[in-house]
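Honest question from a wet-lab person: if I give you the sequences of every part of a complex, can you actually get the arrangement of the whole thing, not just the pieces? Trying it with mine:
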Amino acid sequence: MKTLSYLSLVLVFIFTMGEATNAQERYSRREKKAHYSSDYNYEVQIMGVGQDGTKVMKVSGYGKKVEDAIIEAKMNSVAAVIFKGIPGGHGAAATPAILKDPGAGDKHAEYFESFFSPGGKYLQFITVTTDGMPSGQDRMKMKKGYKVFIYVQVMYDSLRKQLEADGIARSLDSGF
Amino acid sequence: MKKLFSIFIFTTLTLSLFAQAKKPTIMVVPSDQYCISRGYKLEFENMGATQTLPDYKKAMQNDADLRLVITKLGQIMADRGFPLKDLEMELRNLEREAAEASMLMSSSSSSDMAESPVDALKRTAKADIILDLGFDIKRMGPERYISFNLRGLDSYTSKQVSGAAGAGKPSSSASPELLLEEAVLSYMDGFNAGLQTHFDDMFAKGREVKINIRRWNSWMDNFETYFTDKKGEELEMLEHIENWFFDNTVEGRFSLSDASENQMRLEQVRIPMIEVDSRGRERAVDTRRFLSGLSRYLRDNFEIDSKIYVRGLGEAWLIVGEK
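Yes, you can. This is the full assembly:
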């Protein structure tokens, strides 16, 4: 009986070790870091139909400090409108990305580097935000920093027009 | 001589820089279902059967919600570089035009203007892309919500080129007007993205048009008669025409959906958006311009005259045998 219980203990140990190794294989520390520092890793949710030409959304951002996370969230809101699009919800239909080409970011890398630089032009298209310190569920303490959610109103039409004027996006009537 | 050459180069460059494709016209039209369900309809007897048609004039004169939605759609489309043709204005203009045309006389001989029955029949409100609109203000308990349906239809190919449909968020406090405005704002970005995809496809693969080729009764031959072209190739007229389409459409894209000795019906014909004319200028191509090439080919190779009958930017008929 004693041997049987030892054997079952050993089996449980082996099984647990195997699972842990599998998890480590799936996400190494470097991979996890890449996941959190990725430009594409943000969540966005539409919060309703905005005023004419604007989109109101809730968007996430990561940062070592809450302030950094807020700045990143603002950047993400504009990036979502340009590259990702916003899925529908809260009575609002889905909003397509301004740039449909999935490689547009790389194609115009130089332009977007300056556009999204600290204090860059992207800020011009954000009108209202919950700039104060997010609290409760909108502010999560992570292992090395914070993940925050803020509410942002992006001037969708003005942003589209700016990208069209700069030759990055194609206007509906171009070619005619 | 040098100056003349510079002027020539400058003119050629300027003309080629400004060559642009023909812009399709867009008009919002309330759907048949919308008009008929609200009583904006015309009923008449046709061979013993009652036919019901939408009465657009009545709809535009009586429905404030419809006018609001059309105004909002027009505002958004104008902002995107596509001012809409207004249905109400178009109907009013047609009435006025008909009245003026019937009164107009030349000052020297008092002659009136020539107009065939077909010319009169063609005097209708039309656009290249029709925005077929339908919406309903529905109730769910104390709350109201909007069910919205907008379809972008190509007038000639009858294909839906874009669409937006769905139900808005129910509300007990918002007015119907506000809910309608919200619905338009919510759906138009997606709708325009669909329209953009259609235009991108048009520029990549050519404009999709419909062409009918028919024969006059007075023409002694038909499309199954053998003809020899200038290259000495003897084929049925139908095959000669098919070969011409293969050579002149974008990547040879067209489909001959129906053919007999009397007619050929060609669908999904992809015509180029721009071509270089005989003077070296880049010019926008529409179906009439495209078909004039076939008309010329028939005259040059087989000495057959033909008449081009235009039904719009994207549909034309070629009637072979005489002008």
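Two things worth pointing out. The first strand of chain B starts at residue 26 and ends at 30. DSSP finds nine helices and 15 strands in chain B.
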